[in-house]
Design brief:
By secondary structure, the protein is an all-alpha fold. Helix content is about 80%, strand content about 0%. The longest helix has about 50 residues.
Length: about 300
């Protein structure tokens, strides 16, 4: 019995060491670049979204708002106070919806993490997140053109924690906060991918998520709701799933529903949307993720 346990531990350690060495550089690079953007570039990005309010772009403004959203390094609890400030300054609700939706789905740090999944998956993630933001903006414009969609009462824009006068110390503190916030979830993701690689037969997984593409997309969109806790933590899992036969469409569906329904994001959104619009938001996310997954599978076939 002891020999069996020892041998099993050796197998697990081998997979853990292999997975960690493959994914760790992307995680570290993501933290460093994400912190650099947060400390030195975030203000400029948010200034650009503010400047959109002074331009007469009409409905077209949804597109740059969605693009700027994926480059915002703020979490949802930071994005909502910013959006409240933008709303008070007169920025349209459809532009805000596009910015907030794409900001929920992607940020610079997660973008760097996702390079570990390969060029195709990274491209699918970026394009689908921008399109989801655009679709959210169009939906708000079409259904709520003459009435308010958000309720930002009680929200004020937060002061940045990156205020130390020494730029190097400011950057190091931001990097430290990112390590603390994402490190545990990153290790959990690696451990789960190791257990998956060791104990889940690849052929059965491929049959579930690869061969039956329609059902695989639906299942991936569904499991994204309870499983997603941190973007960095899901990258090792997604990498292993894709290697084991998951279709790119299923991965795309997971990459949309996961961050869009992360419990902390939902808690913040429920406050500003109210129950009825919150339910509409969940329905929108599920429908968009399913359609995206099916379309991606057709394109990548």
């Amino acid at each position: 019995m002891a020999e069996i346990l020892r041998r099993e531990f050796i197998y697990l350690w081998y997979y853990f060491d292999l997975q960690l060495r493959q994914i760790l550089p992307y995680w570290l690079l993501g933290i460093i670049i994400g912190s650099v953007i947060s400390v030195f570039v975030a203000g400029r990005i948010h200034g650009l979204i503010r400047a959109l309010g002074d331009k007469k772009l009409g409905l077209v403004g949804i597109v740059p708002a969605a693009v700027l959203g994926i480059f915002s390094p703020l979490c949802m609890y930071g994005t909502i106070p910013l959006a409240a400030s933008l709303s008070k300054s007169g920025l349209r609700d459809d532009w805000l919806a596009a910015f907030m939706m794409s900001s929920i789905l992607l940020n610079p740090q997660l973008m760097i993490y996702s390079t570990a999944l390969g060029t195709t998956a990274l491209t699918v993630r970026i394009v689908s997140c921008i399109l989801c933001g655009i679709a959210a903006g169009l939906a708000v414009w079409f259904f709520y053109r003459n009435k308010s969609f958000f309720n930002f009462s009680g929200f004020e824009e937060r002061q940045s924690r990156d205020t130390h006068p020494n730029l190097l110390i400011r950057l190091l503190k931001n990097i430290g906060r990112n390590f603390k916030a994402t490190g545990p979830w990153f290790l959990v993701g690696v451990i789960l991918s190791v257990l998956f690689q060791r104990y889940v037969p690849a052929d059965q997984f491929a049959a579930l998520f690869g061969e039956n593409e329609g059902f695989g997309v639906l299942l991936a969109a569904t499991i994204g709701v309870p499983l997603y806790a941190c973007g960095g933590g899901t990258i090792p899992l997604l990498q292993q799933w894709l290697w084991s036969g998951m279709s790119m469409g299923s991965a795309a569906a997971f990459m949309i529903t996961g961050p869009a329904t992360k419990i902390t994001n939902l808690g913040a959104l429920k406050i500003v949307l109210g129950l009825r619009r919150f339910i509409l938001y969940i329905a929108f996310v599920m429908i968009f993720s399913l359609l995206t997954g099916l379309i991606v599978d057709v394109i990548c076939r």
